[in-house]
TrEMBL record:
Gene Ontology molecular function terms on file: pentosyltransferase activity
Compartmental location: Golgi apparatus membrane
GO cellular component, one term: Golgi membrane
Main location: Golgi
Transmembrane segments: 7-25
Record-linked Pfam families: Glyco_transf_61
Protein name, UniProt field: Glycosyltransferase 61 catalytic domain-containing protein
Keyword Transport: no
Domain Glycosyltransferase 61 catalytic, chain residue ranges per copy: 287-382
InterPro entries for this protein: Glyco_transf_61_cat, Glycosyltransferase_61
Keywords: Glycoprotein, Glycosyltransferase, Membrane, Transferase, Transmembrane, Transmembrane helix
Keyword Cytoplasm among UniProt keywords: no
Amino acid sequence: MEGHRRVVCGATQVIGLLAFIFLFYTQSFSFDPINFLLRKQNSLKRNETMEEVGVFEENLLSSFKSLLSDDDLPTLDTTSLACNSATGPSLCVTTNPVKIDTVTMEIYLPTRPDPPNPNRNFSVNEDGQIIQLIRPYAWGQLDLLKTITPVKFLREPPQQTPARRCDFHHKVPALVFSSGGFAGNLFHEFNEIIIPLYLTSRVFRSRIQFILVDFNPIFVNKFNRILSSLSDFEVLNPNSNTNFTNSNKIVRCFHGSVVGLKFHSFLSINSSEVPKGNSMIEFRKFLGKTYDLKSENASISVSKPPILVLISRRKTRRFLNEDEMVEMMEELGFEVVVVKSSKTMSDLDRFSKLVRTCSVLVGAHGAGLTNQVFLAEEAVVVQVVPLGLEWPSAVYFGEPAVRMGLRYLEYRIGTDESSLVDSFARANPVISDPGSVFAKGYFLGKEMYLDKQNIRVDIGRFKSTMGEALRLIGRTTPLSTR
Ligand SMILES: *[C@@H]1O[C@H](CO)[C@@H](O)[C@H](O)[C@H]1NC(C)=O
Ligand SMILES: *[C@@H]1O[C@H](CO)[C@@H](O)[C@H](O)[C@H]1NC(C)=O
Ligand SMILES: *[C@@H]1O[C@H](CO)[C@@H](O)[C@H](O)[C@H]1NC(C)=O
Ligand SMILES: *[C@@H]1O[C@H](CO)[C@@H](O)[C@H](O)[C@H]1NC(C)=O
Ligand SMILES: *[C@@H]1O[C@H](CO)[C@@H](O)[C@H](O)[C@H]1NC(C)=O
């Protein structure tokens, strides 16, 4: 490679609203996977061919149950519909067959079998009562949720009207979720959709039909590999069903449904929360397999200079002396790859491979750091924390990095390193007490610290952080690169 540095494109990584809102589902758990496996094996011994269907159904019921906490299971048993109740419904499960009107996103719990007469004649909104409404996006901020397509559960109206006829029978359950919300921002895409989707769908072992409301083709294209690893079927866009050629496939029938996605914590999976037994270690293995990433060990490639990926934000939270930073990093022996483009980063196929080969990922607080999910084990994340952003830096990226088994270093800038000192006196609360600015209103704080702040890194002080990173990947002394 010629030159000391490769510069990958230009443009920017836009960070969405990092609203300071916690979602914590504290739920207990009742499904016992070991017991279930034993039961399954016994039934297989009894009669393998005959039991196949039975096993599938039992398996399916257990899968549904694994998504709910103890408290919600009695409701599921009595009504075949249950939602997680902990923080207002964010996920609902139906275990019996359902009919989904993909135009209105009404889910009917049938009271009668599918009528034999193919002459469909009902208006989609006729009687029936909404018994549950849910907006299937895993970020519980109310004004955001308002933008998410609601999904409604209803019981089929009684005898006098004809029952809905299934226009299409699926042999698997449906999983309904949204690609609205903050999709477009890598952090939010992984945090609210991809990790929760993994968590929610994995137990079905790809035998599940995804229905994506607020269908975003860019999202589907970007995460195509992940979506097709998690489901054997092409993602269904309910809106495309309103189109004439498809208009006879409006009502689709499924072996039960899940609406909404399970969320544990920011970029994290907690193995003791339902669905129990998952972890970020497993998720990262899944990513490695899905993107065909080599299981590199960041500490090992002794022969070559370690690769450092520097995420160079272009609009907000920019490094004002990036060249000096790169120079210092190269002096320490890193091969520095500066990534300036969100376009580069959104080509996950290629970018994940670059991240997997690097030993150290460096960036200011922002969505680009989400790429830590692709890092090799033993790799180091260095987050540069701007003024006033200690909390989101720790909660969105720092703690998750540690929990997924990476090494994490934080470089908190001093007031002199923030561009805000150019506009505000040191005694001004903007500089001396960022908490008080956020206390006046989240959007005020967001504008000041997330949108209006750039960073002039103190090279001398930052050098010791980078030296620590070098030590963590097993390089004790600076190398001469060439
Ligand atoms: C994981 O979940 C359990 C049970 O809800 C909780 O006690 C524990 O604190 C959680 N761990 C983390 C790291 O959040
Ligand atoms: C299993 O079921 C099949 C199909 O009903 C039957 O022919 C076979 O005899 C059964 N085998 C055993 C071991 O019960
Ligand atoms: C459909 O229902 C409407 C209103 O009940 C009725 O007037 C119409 O004849 C029905 N059409 C068919 C094809 O059954
Ligand atoms: C309607 O659906 C068909 C089949 O899915 C598709 O090929 C066609 O492009 C769609 N037409 C429009 C106008 O969306
Ligand atoms: C990576 O390499 C280091 C240093 O040789 C070693 O201590 C560590 O166990 C390795 N990790 C993995 C996951 O192989």
